[in-house]
Each structure stands twice: as C-alpha cells, then as structure tokens.
Amino acid sequence: MASENIIRVDSWAELIEELYVDSWDESIQRHRSNFAFRGLSSSEHIPDTSLRRLGGDYWDIEFHLIRNFKKYARMDKTDKFSIWNWLVIAQHHGLPTRLLDWTFSPFVSLHFATCDLDEYDKDGAILMVDYIKFHDKLPKVLKEKLEEEGANGFTVEMLNDVAGTLKEFGEISDEDFVVFFDPPSMDYRLVNQYSLHSVMSNSRRRLTDLLDRNKDLWRMIVIPKEIKWEVRDKLDQANINERVLFPGLDGLSCWLTRHYKPRK
After folding, report:
1. Positive or negative: CA dihedral 129, 133, 138, 142
2. pLDDT at 187 > cutoff 90
3. H, E, C per residue of 238-259
4. How far is CA 110 from the centre of its chain?
5. Number of alpha carbons in the 13 Å side-chain half-sphere of residue 36
6. Number of domains in the chain
7. Distance (Å, rounded) from C-alpha 53 to C-alpha 67?
8. Confidence tier at 27 by pLDDT (50, 70, 90)
9. CA nearest 108: which of 193, 41, 9?
10. Which uninterrupted H or E stretch holds 38?
C-alpha cells in the first residue's frame, strides 16, 4: 500500500484529530465524515476477506459455502431473504465470505485495533476509505440506484434490485469495483458496532488493488505500540468495549478477561 497515504501519530490528541479529518460539511454546517473505518491490530495486516484467506481455488468454493449454509441454517422466515441477506448472516456467524467488515464509528475501529493484547508488541492501524467517492466511480446502473434513492450507500434491498445473484453482480462491469452497504439490523451486535460491509465485484481481487489505483480515496493512521495502552484505557473509560459491542455473556466474558489481564 502506498506509503504517502500512511500517517503516523504520536499521541491520543493527534490520533483523534486524524480520525475526524475532513469531516466538516460546509453545505449543512455539520460534521459528517465520508469515511468507512477498519481497525487493524497490526499495521502490517492486509485487509483480506475471510474467503480469500481460505487459500486454494477459494473462488470456486464460494457458491458451495453459501448454498450449504442456506441448506443447513435453521432460521425462521428466510423465504424472502436475498443473496445479500444470506451473505451478511453468513459473515456474521463466521462463514468465509467475500465481505469485509467496516464501521462508521472511528472509536469502534479503535477498539478492533487495540482489543488483541497479544499484538501489543506491534503498531496498530486504522484504515479509512472514502466510500462516497468510491461510489462516484461505480458502474452507471449502481450510481443510478443511489441517485434514485437519494442515498450515499446501499442497503441489501437496493443491491438486490440491481443484482439478484453474485454472478449478476460481477457481470455489471468488466472493470473491478467495490460497493459499501449497510447490513440489516438483525441483532444488537451489528447495531452497536455501527456496521458497514464492502463487497468486491470480483472475489479474486483484493480491495488493496483498488486502493493502489485510487490513492486519493483512502488513508491509514498508524497507532504506535507505545500508545496502545493509553488508547485502550481511554476507550474502556468511554464504554467502547466487548461488553457493548458484543452484547451477551460471550462479550462480557471477553471484556472482563481483557480488563483484568496484567500488563506485560
């Protein structure tokens, strides 16, 4: 990834300033960020999909994973689910998919950059992507759908109106593109994490392929390992933790385990 897009901060104050950069919207006199955020526990991590991390000919396995997930998933009222609903549910429950998880919240992204204490010997990072400008580069049919709805991003219903299958989605254009969409609020975890997903038109391509060709549409903030503990402690004080972001006993246990683990 392009080094000119990487910003290294040295303090909490600098970090917050960079996270909210360019958020002022003069037309409405309000702060409204165009960025989607993704927290990385190590600045060396490449934001790969769980499907790609399977390795091998993963693109040939994608259909079979989804088909069998739909076949064996015991859920009510799924008859009206689109492929986009199923992808979100599968991603939510750990099935490898071509989706990447993002958030509208810079603080939630900071949580995911600092929640793994075993990575505290490494610099963390926040990847910020201007999803609205990426949508300006979408194929005509997708841009027209956004204009029709007066929206900046997609819902699963909007995507299904344009492409009812992943094959149809990939055939919209010969050029690779990425779409950012809001998942349905199926549970409090997605709601509390202020979740957003991205999906590539071609599962063989990485998002970084597009980022390298559009260097003006993203930036990465590197969080030095020396300030990770300060960031983590201030997030906990702000109630940004596993107990809130993963409601339930699993999240509570994860939070308490991390909270009381001695600092090395």
Report:
1. positive
2. no
3. CCCCHHHHCCCHHHHHHHHHHH
4. 12
5. 24
6. 1
7. 19
8. confident
9. 193
10. strand 35-40
- What are phi and psi for residue 44, nearest 5 degrees? -90, -10
Cα atoms in the 13 Å half-sphere on the side-chain side of 17: 8
- Per 3-state DSSP, what percentage of the chain is helix, strand, and coil (rounded to 5)? 45, 15, 35
Cα–Cα distance between 237 and 232 in angstroms, integer? 9
Which element (helix H / strand E) includes 88? helix 83-92
> Residue 190 pLDDT > 80, yes or no?
yes
**Amino acid letter for position 219:** R
Say whether pLDDT at 69 is over 90.
yes
Encode pLDDT of 46-67 as tens digits: 899 999 999 999 999 999 999 9
Residue 168 CB neighbour total at 10 angstroms: 12
pLDDT at 151 over 80: yes
Q: Which residues span the domain enclosing 145?
A: 3-260
In degrees, rounded to 5, the angle at the alpha carbon of residue 99 between the alpha carbons of residues 98 and 102 is 155
Residues 6+ positions from 257 with CB-CB distance below 8 Å: none
User: What are the distances in angstroms from CA 204 to CA 2, 51, 52, 53, 122?
Assistant: 21, 10, 8, 11, 29
| Other Cβ atoms closer than 10 A to 260 | 7
* Residue 1 pLDDT: 59
- Average pLDDT, integer, range 213-228: 96
Sign of CA dihedral 208, 210, 216, 218: negative
Q: For residues 166 and 82, is the Cβ–Cβ distance under 8 A?
A: no
| pLDDT value at residue 2 | 56
CA angle 86, 90, 94 (to 5 degrees): 175
Identity (one letter) of the amino acid at 79? D
